[in-house]
Design a protein that fits this description.
The structure is a single chain. The chain is of the alpha/beta class and 473 residues long. It has three domains: 81 residues, 3-Layer(aba) Sandwich (Udp-n-acetylmuramoylalanyl-d-glutamate--2,6- Diaminopimelate Ligase, Chain: A, domain 1), CATH 3.40.1390.10; 215 residues, Mur-like, catalytic domain (UDP-N-acetylmuramoyl-L-alanine:D-glutamate ligase, 3-Layer(aba) Sandwich); 141 residues, Mur ligase, C-terminal domain (Protein-Tyrosine Phosphatase, Chain A), CATH 3.90.190. The protein is built from 16 helices and 20 strands. Bound molecules: adenosine-5'-diphosphate and magnesium ion (MG).
């Protein structure tokens, strides 16, 4: 196996000669000295802080080289330096070179959407890992530095690559998808999130549609069938010469899910691909919305010519990422309660999905449904209406008790009947106490909010207080 980057490959990609150092091979790429591994290339980016202040620390931690701007003054102890006019552009150049050197038969999938990017990316990673050497984005590394960083980290032996691509504004996905050059691109869904920066949901759809601009002609543009903006996205794909491919629980979708059944331990469905057969799939991650994302995964596997049936077997064992539906058992007295941790992320679509998933937990097993709901952030002027608008979903899920947290959730809380009011607090610290006092054996508790609301601390406190040594069934 070759190293990730040789010194001469770096020079060629960056149009910069190594200054100093011993021409060591590079085994990784890092932008943060706290997670840097010996042998990494340290890239000094200017973000919240200037990475150039950490170059010395990077070399102390074992960096093999650093990518710095021309103005950087070499410090004692520094090793090989590659100087460029702009380090972010340098990282992008490295990413482009990494994509270019992949073998012709390697296949890349890009994922964007208003919700479900990371979850879908992780499902693809798991499925493709069963089929060949797979490289995928870390965490939610989906922005102007996350995407080129993920590219720059891609080993040349990669057979399958999976890239999460995100955005907060129009025009942000375009340059990223052109670097990634996906062989199939998924838009998980289009929803009213990040409305602060967009005049309309249609404008959001258009911005997501930019991902198709990186596709080669004839490549698959994977679109959710059951979305008000599906037609718009299909038109964008077609105008770019890409091939629209739809997924969903609808017989008219190109990749169809049917016979969906939910249990508290996951879900089952049949997946049928037009021209590609039909087979049962079990998912360890509960939720119809997750199953829908899995249909997008199936579409992508099919589109890139991978073994769909074999790949999807990975979903049988794939657990949800932390804060995105992970389940654990709480011990209360002699009994048990079920905790569903959705504290990482929330928007109106994922709130509804999480409430529906809560409702799928059988009453026979957990008799009382509790929802702990915190503010959904970044919704702009629509925020009050979108929060109170959740009342229907709370009713539909037949939630018994709601604890609400944050200024926006006050609206929803006030709209609830007294019997459903568990408690309200502005901050997560106070709501945790109220919840812990109310909790009893036989409850199922679902905690969901935007990460900034800090309901993750409530989850952590519950786990500490009630123990969770045993994974939930
Ligand atoms: N298709 C979907 N529709 C609605 N909500 C979804 C969907 N897929 C995932 N979610 C929910 O959205 C939240 C964020 O999921 P995540 O995969 O981290 O998305 P992203 O990376 O787009 O922020 C989770 O609560 C998840 O369960
Ligand atoms: Mg993400």
């Amino acid at each position: 196996m070759h190293p990730l980057w040789s010194s001469s490959e770096l020079s060629a990609a960056l149009s910069a000669d190594a200054e100093g150092g011993s021409g060591e091979a590079i085994t990784g790429v890092s932008i943060d000295t706290r997670s840097l591994q010996p042998g990494d290339l340290f890239v000094a980016l200017k973000d919240q802080r200037d990475g150039h202040d950490f170059v010395s620390a990077a070399f102390k931690a074992g960096a093999a080289a650093a990518l710095v701007s021309e103005a950087y003054v070499r410090q004692p102890g520094d090793g090989a330096l590659f100087r460029v006019a702009d380090t972010l552009s340098g990282l992008e150049a490295l990413g482009v070179a990494a994509r270019k050197r992949l073998a012709g038969e390697a296949r890349i999938v890009g994922v964007t959407g208003s919700a479900g990017k990371t979850g879908t990316k992780e499902m693809l990673r798991a499925c493709l890992s069963l089929l060949g050497a797979t490289h995928a984005s870390e965490k939610s590394y989906n922005n102007h530095w996350g995407v080129p960083l993920t590219l720059a980290r891609m080993p040349r032996e990669t057979k399958f690559g999976v890239f999460e691509i995100g955005m907060n504004h129009a025009g942000e996905i375009r340059p990223l998808t052109k670097m990634v050059r996906p062989d199939a691109a998924i838009i998980t869904t289009v929803e009213p999130v990040h409305l602060e920066h967009f005049p309309s949901v249609e404008a959001i759809a258009d911005a997501k549609g930019e991902i198709f601009e990186g596709l080669a002609p004839g490549s698959a543009a994977i679109i959710k069938f059951d979305n008000p903006h599906a037609g718009r996205l299909k038109a964008i794909a077609s105008s770019l010469g890409a091939k629209p491919m739809t997924f969903g629980f609808d017989a008219r979708a190109d990749v169809q899910g049917a016979h969906f059944t939910a249990s508290d331990s996951g879900s089952d469905m049949t997946v049928s691909i037009n021209g590609g057969g039909s087979f049962p799939v079990h998912l360890a991650i509960p939720g119809r919305h997750i199953a829908e994302n899995a249909l997008a995964v199936a579409a992508a596997l099919y589109a890139i010519g991978a073994d769909v049936r074999k790949g999807l077997e990975a979903l049988t064992n794939l657990a949800p990422p932390s804060g995105r539906g992970a389940r654990s058992t709480l011990h209360i007295g002699d009994g048990k309660a079920l905790l569903i941790d959705e504290s990482y992320n929330a928007n109106p679509a994922s709130m509804r999905a999480a409430l529906a998933t809560l409702a799928a937990v059988p009453r026979a097993k957990y008799s009382r449904r509790i929802a702990v709901l915190g503010d959904m952030l970044e919704l702009g002027s629509e925020a009050p209406a979108l929060h109170t608008g959740l009342k229907g979903a709370v009713d539909e899920a037949d939630v018994d008790l709601v604890f609400a947290c944050g200024p926006h959730m006050k609206g929803l809380y006030d709209a609830l009947p007294a019997a459903k009011k568990g408690g309200y607090a502005l901050s997560s610290a106070t709501i945790g106490t109220a919840l812990a006092e109310n909790l009893r054996a036989g409850d199922v508790v679902m905690v969901k909010a935007s990460n900034g609301t800090r309901l993750g601390s409530v989850v952590a406190a519950l786990k500490t207080q009630f123990g969770n040594d045993e994974p939930a069934a």
